[in-house]
Amino acid sequence: MPGPPRHPVRIEDPSDPRIAGFVSIRERDLTGRQGRFIAEGTVVLRMLAAAHRAGRGVAAEAILLLENRIAGLADVLAEFPADVPVFAAEARVFDAIAGFNMHRGVLALGRRDAMPGMDTLIAGLPASSLVLAACGISNHDNMGTLFRNAAAFGVDALLMDASSCDPMYRKAIRVSVGSVLTLPFAREGTAASLIERLRAAGFEIWGLSPSGETDIAGIPPAPRTALLVGTEGEGLPEAILSSVHTARIRQRPGLDSLNVAMAAGIALYQVASVNGRI
Amino acid sequence: MPGPPRHPVRIEDPSDPRIAGFVSIRERDLTGRQGRFIAEGTVVLRMLAAAHRAGRGVAAEAILLLENRIAGLADVLAEFPADVPVFAAEARVFDAIAGFNMHRGVLALGRRDAMPGMDTLIAGLPASSLVLAACGISNHDNMGTLFRNAAAFGVDALLMDASSCDPMYRKAIRVSVGSVLTLPFAREGTAASLIERLRAAGFEIWGLSPSGETDIAGIPPAPRTALLVGTEGEGLPEAILSSVHTARIRQRPGLDSLNVAMAAGIALYQVASVNGRI
């Protein structure tokens, strides 16, 4: 139920203490910030509003808009509770605050409570589940795309080993179009322990690799399926591949294999289709 | 047939006239350069060697390597003719030459001759063909990914309207893992004229859209199929969609539609499969 129209507080001075949380967020984004995160752009702002209302540990703390974006965002702003402050600034002030100009005039600060660990997350999955498991993903673009695809194709949880990068970074959240804020995930431990946990929970685990044994079109339906993808460069190590089912995506020979996020998208589409999830 | 080992010419001075072509290539990359292009990274360098040997209008002019990359690239260098000069520099000199540090220590300058126009390209397609047609693609990442996917799934040509960005830019070439150098393409005219040309050549044209009528799994095999994708934000305009078959990719409701390059990858995989091309 949308609330009344919001009237942003005008900020004239980049050093105004009310917007201190937004100052130089680009650099701070690189350092990890105690459960806080940055949302950029209209689509992510809308997802933040949805996550905030859902009340599952994600909350908006403040919103900062470029003056000329306010009118077009009235409906999105109305989706936030009235106690979330909304600030507005002209371009010169806005850029002086944020320290960069990649924000599209729409920024929010959010907070995420400590999330359940991987065991708790797995224990809470429904009897019929689809999981995306990712190991050694180091690129925030790929991480964001994995989340976006996982959400699109009905994945219940995204599980990562500890060597994967943090999906709560600004760029990953943006590329995920906000799915990082709504899709349950956990990131801990080794690839081997991740596989062990999934197997113990009754998952059929399919490792994706150009050398996989089964065409992805041949992955059978199962109550619980986990699709496993590896690092951008090397893919999944042999020790992992030898411990799970393996699947490949047909493509023309003699070319570099598909990007990991693309491969995951195609395979998820296939597995979600065969399991009637989309 | 690989040639003899290459011995790079050491460059000690960033102003050495022999490597003038590499100076500040980042800025020049933004300006369009008379058929010249920049190849970055090992994978693209290998594709450049293949394109050079194929002799279809793409040639390497010079290669510049970071000292510590030489040993690992001996096999790739041997794939270039002996008259393509190879230079090497230490990191300090290399960065001073190139003006940025995103090159992974592997750069090449290439030249592309004027390519056949769209009509000539279409006229030369085989009786059984798969074409990817793209309109209004403005992001070089997406453009590169479209090429990478098109190559992986056996597309014969990638056709773009004039409003799409130039795939010969450094970043698009890199993201395409060099497929821009080997996959035939043309970029000219309007979306409407592109469709008209494909239709006149007997193509079944399928526009991809979240509102498409047919599930992509229902696109029937055909001797000549063209998959059509639109801009990142708005997708294909209604005037275009009403003039072609339309297809959609099933996904969970209530989310942003898939990224254009991801959607094209999934649909190409499907169409290439049903037509026995992969």
UniProtKB/TrEMBL annotation, chains A, B:
InterPro entries for the chain: Alpha/beta_knot_MTases, Ribosomal_eL30-like_sf, rRNA_Methyltransferase, SpoU_MeTrfase, tRNA_m1G_MTases_N
MF GO annotations: methyltransferase activity
Chain ranges passing through the membrane: none
One Pfam family linked to the record: SpoU_methylase
Name this polypeptide is given: RNA methyltransferase
UniProt source species: Sinorhizobium numidicum
Keyword line: Methyltransferase, Transferase
GO biological process: methylation
